[in-house]
Amino acid sequence: MRKSLIIGVLALVGCAETGPQLVARLGSDPVVSGGTYDSGGGLSVAVDIREYQGRTMVCGVWAQSRQQSILTKYSAPKVIRSGAVYLGRDVLVRGLGFMPEVEPAEDYAGQEAGCTVTGRPWQATDASQTPVLQLPRQVVHVEDDESGTFVVVFKQTGPEA
Predict the structure, then answer these.
(1) Count of domains for the chain
(2) Prediction pTM value
């Protein structure tokens, strides 16, 4: 019983990290990163931060390349959900699944973005800081047959869609 209670409390604390999900337009200079798959193709993610009712709000969109292997065609949402946004040493948000997919673009400024309000209070110096986007390296596809094993890996390399 005690173990169940502790797990329940930890689950609620994890959920409390972010608040309501909203929609806003990305600013004029969002941070853009992304990565590639070993088999070709990749993704780009654009984020910015702003103040919302005294809290830090993270907004963003993501795009995937039009041409990529069928092996990675449905991998992007998993990669996006594993991402995180940091500001200095603070993790603003883990899991970027609140962000909508958009068409690949040269510039993501002004895109209609999904936003989430974090539990972190906004600080006056935040406006001059640059958020950091992390997309962990991960295996997105494994094929095993009599001729061997074929593995496709995603790795963060910068904008790629």
Answers:
(1) 1
(2) 0.83
